[in-house]
Amino acid sequence: MKTIKSTLLITLILSTFLLKAQSTKKIKKDNIFQTAGSVFKTSFNTIPSDFVFLGKELSDDWKKTGYYAAGILGLIATDKITTKAYHKYVEPNIDYTLPNITPHFLRKSKEMWTKGENSYLTYPIIGIYLGSLFTNSKKGQFAAINSFKALAYATLITQLSLKTIFGRNRPNRPLSETAIAPFTNNNWDFFNSRNGYLYGEAQGTGLPSMHTTGYFALAKVIQMEFDNYWIPYSVMAITWLSDIKSHNHWVSDIVVGGIVGTLIGRSIVKSSWKARGILPQKQREISLNYIPQFSSDFAGIRIIAHIE
To answer: Which pLDDT score, from 0 to 100, does residue 177 have?
Structure first.
């Protein structure tokens, strides 16, 4: 009996010691280079799944996709009215510019995302990445790289794909005057050829707005990664409106750009979250069916549960 008590006492002491040792043991954290390498590798490997998630955004709910398509068609049909009002009442009342913060050696660059008003979006993202790199923050690095992916995808999808497919000419300014090519007064002026694809001339480059697509894609990434709407969308709106006259699009072009950009940003973050193991699981839905049942042995209600 004394032996059993002694054994139990020793076991209890050892268990307490081991638990204390485990609780005080520090979890080894990756160094700066390991974290950066891991983030870059994951971000590169998720490129295919980014587009898989983008496809799911359209195919998971065909009813919603159909509603959006019908709404866009309606906007195109009324573009003459809305765009004329936009030119007359909106643009003249928004008249401000942001200071040019682009370094002189980049001001003649052909890369539009690194100069002009776009600098107010891309430079903070560079700052987020560098700050996260030095502080070894994996979340910040993912947010920054996903933001750059958003701008890259927005550029490629709009410039090489959608604008080429639709070939819509931009609206003449103002619409009431005789149009001068390549601009048009016809809101159904689609399927025109293009002169240059990535950063070419204005002909056939109306739908969708690349700036709007890129701005919304970037804002959506930052909003989801940091769970904050006000900062990214406020910065995006202030920057976009500062150069409102140069966008020169039909109203529907701008709306489509916002929708496409949002889908791009959301798809990138969902793909990244899945790879990082933090994508929220779809909540299960439970539906109950109540079936009256009568027999010689039983009279009552049969309940059938469906779990989706």
So the answer is: 79
Please give the pLDDT value at position 302. 53
- Taking the alpha carbons at both ends of the chain, their separation in whole angstroms is 57
pLDDT, residue 297, reads 52
SS3 179: coil
Q: How many Å separate Cα 87 from the centre of its chain?
A: 28
Res 169: pLDDT: 95
pTM, 2 dp: 0.82
State the Cα–Cα distance between residues 168 and 250, nearest whole angstrom: 10
Q: Give the C-alpha separation, 182 to 291, whole Å.
A: 67
Distance in angstroms (rounded) separating the CA atoms of residues 152 and 158: 10
Residues in contact with 138: Cβ distance below 8 Å, sequence separation at least 6, in sequence order: 35, 38, 39, 132
Angle between helix 138-155 and 210-226 (nearest 10): 160
Integer Cα distance of 51 and 55 in angstroms: 6
Cβ atoms < 10 Å from Cβ of 48: 8
Give the integer Cα–Cα distance in Å for 42 and 138: 11
Tell me whether residue 55 is exposed, middle or buried, using C-beta atoms within 10 angstroms of its C-beta: 0 to 12, 13 to 18, 19 or more: exposed
Of 256, 270, 169, 249, nearest to 216 (Cα)? 256
Contact predicate 129/145, CB 8 Å: yes
Whose CA is closest to 53, among 149, 162, 160, 124?
149
Smallest CA-to-CA distance from 184 within 196, 172, 195, 192 is with: 172
Kindly give the parts of the chain with pLDDT less than 70: 1-28, 282-308
Contact predicate 253/152, CB 8 Å: no
CB neighbours of residue 166 within 10 Å: 17
The position carrying tokens 């560079």 is 126
Q: How far is CA 76 from the centre of its chain?
A: 24
Q: Do 212 and 252 contact (CB within 8 A), yes or no?
A: no
